[in-house]
């Protein structure tokens, strides 16, 4: 008889798992009730904790807890995907991300690349939630694996309401300063520099220091409520090391051999008045500087996809309206060659010129030489990878939540025609949503 308590139901499935089923990857699942997945994560004791929801309306929501296995390189992740695919049977979802610059991963706990196969997974899709326990038997002692899984189940806590976001006072510091920013923009837009490097995406770290930072899960939950048409993600390695974000930009989505990606670059503010807002959208679409920002992105994506695909197709430029900004976007789709892997895609596509620049090596050299803050996972990739399908966001519009400091990141594509003050204001519009949640709007 099946118990109505999902944890008891999973324990029962684990206790009655017969010897012959102990092969490769196994997922034990049971239906459950959950109000807020971030609230469930926030109530747990285990780490790592991870949240992922893709951008499409109706996309599945995932909360992941603990790791059956973790991967610190794309090669290791791909090898595991291949191993399990060869064995057949049900295939797992892996979640995680990569740093902007694998040569400089920097952030403690995060590393250059971290993907995990979760021990416990809570998934909600089309109104139905399921709690799953993942197990591996191919590369470890079965009894130890079962004991570890049982310990994780025993450590599960009930969902709790998320704490309210209390109003706090924050001390703000920007790196670089506006003065230094202006000098960098001057260097990048110097005709000599533009000749070899037409675009550099410069970024700023805004540190907000306070006595007690809010729960990253409470913050993400509030943030995602106002960030429709965006990806929503969070990862927490330890109590004082979390990274959350609501990015509007897709790195790619792969379903079998079909790949979709996009060039999202070029920005203008929003206006409350609908007519004025439309006028701004028209201005953005017709603007030379913003069109160049977007062109650098799609040209590189097309060039990179060409050798990996049978055909690549790009749609028309259009406007994407977010809460505080609007962007130019072009959708791209491609049919991948049979042998192309996520490892290859994640090795080739990021950092796109939406967050790095063009050409990549020269833009990265400028960034490494000038930016003194650590980008870490800001402007990296974050998402879900599986044998059948994968989807990753570009990790922008994000926050690193530490012990006493919240670090917000924003970048702007600097090209011919960029004005330092306008670009600085563009950075502020890109952090406006999270700033207003923190009472700093
Ligand atoms: C780098 C960021 O965003 C990128 C830069 C944009 C721009 O400069 O117009 C727009 C969208 C993204 O391509 C960011 O939000 O941090
Ligand atoms: Mg811009």
UniProtKB/TrEMBL annotation:
Cofactor(s) needed for function: Mg(2+)
Residues holding Mg(2+): 293, 426
Cross-referenced Pfam families: Chorismate_bind
Stored SUPFAM superfamilies: ADC synthase
EC id: 5.4.4.2
Record-linked InterPro entries: ADC_synthase, Chorismate_C, IsoChor_synthase, MenF, MenF-like
Active site: 199 (proton acceptor), 249 (proton donor)
GO molecular function terms noted in the UniProt entry: isochorismate synthase activity
Enzyme class: isomerase
Annotated catalysed reactions: chorismate = isochorismate
Keyword Magnesium: yes
Entry keyword set: Isomerase, Magnesium, Menaquinone biosynthesis, Metal-binding
Pathway: Quinol/quinone metabolism; 1,4-dihydroxy-2-naphthoate biosynthesis; 1,4-dihydroxy-2-naphthoate from chorismate: step 1/7; Quinol/quinone metabolism; menaquinone biosynthesis
Keyword Nucleotide-binding: no
Domain Chorismate-utilising enzyme C-terminal: 178-430
Recorded family membership: Belongs to the isochorismate synthase family.
Role: Catalyzes the conversion of chorismate to isochorismate.
Protein name: Isochorismate synthase MenF
